[in-house]
Design brief:
By secondary structure, this protein is mostly beta strands. The chain is built from two helices and 17 strands. The chain has helices at 2-14, 23-26; strands spanning 63-75, 86-101, 105-120, 123-130, 133-143, 154-164, 190-200, 203-213, 221-222, 226-235, 237-239, 242-255, 259-260, 263-264, 270-283, 286-300, 305-318. Strands 1-2-3-5-6-7-8-10-12-15-16-17 form a twelve-stranded antiparallel β-barrel. The longest helix is centred in the first third of the chain and has 13 residues, at 2-14. The relative contact order is 0.23.
Length: 319
């Protein structure tokens, strides 16, 4: 797995890039911040699809690409004041894209491959394999992005989709500190989304909110519904043949309790609030970006899970 991750990462170290139809001049169709999130209770691990790292590029409004994500957590059983904390890490390689269907509709697809590890009393445990696939359609219900008379071009998009349970779900992990240590939820889930973009010259603000309705899987286990939100201020700057986009913002996630056999599972709800910094660089139809999330406040699984940080690197090709 380590060799695979190195091979995937090499293009990101060697390349930088972006779309020549870039939204730098007209802001084109809106980039998305949509966080069809990883799920801390389905939260800390599970069918991680990108989480509050964002769902699309500020430079490529329609693209296909690959993204690598790394997430780190510390967990404890909390039975005693001196109970040890153990490390859990989540590596995800994700094929993703936002594909145009007709003139207005965009369909986003995310297909992840996970490699998760955690320390145990006897050494370590790891699982790897394909995760759940998410498909989401977004449609602009209001837009002045292409109105040359608009002082503040803006757009509002609404969407809905489905998360398909293609990742393996292991029911024997339900009793662990982090029940989200899975490759998939085993359930068909429904993401609902709204995203908003407003621009002024070389500056823009992107905001999103999405809600994931989760269903019971074949093992009578249901992860709690999930609310995600995010906001980002970004700038688009040209430097020779390159376009650069520094970004600052925040992201938040809130999780309802899990249920097993219609009974609420204790200490499975929670919330986390992140500060976010990101940077993208583009050249012609290629783009490269990186995002870092650091927790500002959190309360996950009754305080037994501590989110440390999340990092992502992506390489996209504009359609």
């Amino acid at each position: 797995m380590k060799r695979l991750l190195i091979l995937i990462m090499m293009p990101f170290w060697a390349l930088g890039a972006v779309n020549d139809s870039l939204v730098t001049r007209n802001f084109g169709p809106p980039p998305s911040e949509l966080a069809i999130s990883r799920m801390p209770c389905d939260a800390c691990g599970c069918s991680a699809s990108g989480g509050s790292m964002g769902f699309a590029s500020m430079l490529n409004s329609r693209f296909v690409g690959v993204r690598y994500m790394y997430q780190r957590y510390e967990t404890t059983d909390g039975l005693y004041a001196n109970s040890p904390w153990r490390t859990e890490t989540f590596h995800t390689i994700q094929l993703w894209g936002r594909i145009p269907v007709g003139k207005k509709l965009n369909v986003t697809v995310m297909a992840p491959y996970h490699h998760n590890t955690r320390a145990t009393e006897t050494g370590s445990q790891s699982i790897e394999g394909f995760g759940d696939v998410t498909v989401l359609a977004l449609y602009p219900v209001y837009s002045t992005l292409h109105d040359t008379l608009a002082r503040l071009p803006q757009e509002l998009r609404l969407g809905a989709g489905v998360k398909m349970p293609l990742g393996t779900y292991a029911s024997d992990n339900n009793g662990s500190i982090n029940p989200g240590f899975q490759l998939g939820t085993g359930s068909w889930d429904v993401p609902l989304a709204a995203e908003y973009l407003i621009t002024y010259r070389k500056w823009g603000v992107n905001a999103m909110v999405n809600y994931i309705v989760k269903t019971e899987n074949a093992n009578s286990y249901r992860f709690g519904n999930q609310l995600n939100y995010a906001g980002t201020v970004f700038s688009l700057r040209e430097s020779g043949s390159w376009t650069l986009s520094p970004q600052l913002g925040f992201a938040g996630e809130k999780y309802d309790s899990n249920y097993q056999h219609n009974q609420r599972v204790a200490n499975t709800s929670g919330d986390v609030f992140f500060g976010k910094a990101a940077f993208e660089a583009g050249w012609k139809r290629w783009s490269m970006g990186t995002t870092v999330l650091l927790p500002i406040s959190q309360n996950l699984t009754g305080g037994n899970v501590d989110a440390k940080y999340r990092i992502s690197v992506n390489l996209n090709f504009s359609l």
